[in-house]
Amino acid sequence: MRNLVVLPGDGIGPEIMKQVLRILQAVDSPFNYIEKDAGLTALEKHGSLLPDDTLQAITQHGLALKAPLTTPVGGGFKSINVTLRQKFDLYANVRPVVNLPGVFTRYEKVNLTIIRENTEDLYTGEERQVDADTAESIKRITRKGSERIARYAFEYARTHGKKSVAAVHKANIMKLTDGLFLKTCADVAKEYPEIQFRDVIIDNCCMQLVIRPEQFEVIVTENLYGDILSDLCAGLVGGLGVVPGANIGVQAAIFEPVHGSAPDIAGQNKANPTALLQSAVMMLHHVGEHERADRIMRALIKTLSDTQARTADLGGKGNTETFTNALIANL
Ligand code: ATP
């Protein structure tokens, strides 16, 4: 059995985590769970958003399934998600955006993956008040950071049978920072002659995504553009309730949904567990448990095509628990 750190998190986190663990149990989970606190829950219990004990567990076991965490607004707290990504150098944020059969959306044939650089860009947290009416923020891009994310994207394309990679940037305005990112991506592209490479300016990319999303296979981009594009792309395939994500580094990997802790529906048994479940499916693939992953996906697709079963965000009549019951019955 492999050790897995489980972070039930805040808001809807504990509700959806509970159901996802039930589903893993139903396929004879290959994991030994180590549950730890993080987020607001941890702040209340231990006086820290990210207790040492939680960090040590992730360092030791290198694998975590994480529900959304809330960083309190104000009070000078640094985002916990950003801290985790920087602390464990989880440089690649991988977000597959795929139409799910049974989930009706305006678009068909969306099948793209966003590979977002996770440690640099405007997320340095280095901001300064220049004077009472002026503030500024540091955007940092390095060749090393750009090179490893570009290589990750091309390797991902190669191993997932994707034929093209698009680097998304704004190098026409930010000539040094985005210029370095783009030039580095173009250099790495030369090592992958079988994969078509192109660059797309971020604003044009947004328009292209809502007009003809099926033209994209792999998008590699900087941290902030990746954050925004991820939510946009979630909207293409049914909203935040369905899109999974992975944060991958050399020593550790943390799997988490794209959505936040959704305080507006927390504690009401309304949340859709699909995004966290699909994150768990990505994790199963990551550790080589392909058969269990495929079984869950088949049951998920079957359950999503049933309007009685699926949750309200997808126009269904189910709730968090009944959706899970139906899915387990479909396994
Ligand atoms: P954050 O800043 O952490 O991203 P947020 O409030 O901006 O938080 P979310 O928490 O992701 O964003 O919520 C955005 C909207 O999507 C809310 O109306 C929420 O109810 C809805 N939502 C998010 N996740 C789910 C889910 N799993 N199931 C159903 N609705 C969801």
What's the layout of helices and strands?
Blueprint lengths: L1 E6 L5 H14 L4 E5 L4 H7 L5 H10 L1 E4 L13 H8 L4 E7 L12 E7 L9 E5 L2 E4 L5 H17 L4 E6 L7 H13 L6 E6 H10 L6 E4 L1 H14 L7 E5 L4 E5 L16 H13 L3 H15 L15 H11 L1
Parallel strand pairs: 1-2, 1-3, 3-12, 5-10, 8-9, 8-10
Antiparallel strand pairs: 4-5, 4-11, 6-7, 11-12
Bound molecules: adenosine-5'-triphosphate.
Adenosine-5'-triphosphate binds next to loops.
Notes on the structure:
The chain contains eleven helices and twelve strands. The chain has 331 residues and is of the alpha/beta class. The chain has two domains: 1-93 and 243-331, Isopropylmalate Dehydrogenase; 106-236, Isopropylmalate Dehydrogenase (3-Layer(aba) Sandwich), CATH 3.40.718. The longest helix has 17 residues, at 143-159. Bound molecules: adenosine-5'-triphosphate.
Could you name the key traits of this structure?
10-stranded mixed beta sheet, two-stranded antiparallel sheet, 11 helices, 331 residues, Isopropylmalate Dehydrogenase, 12 strands, alpha/beta, binds adenosine-5'-triphosphate, 40% helix
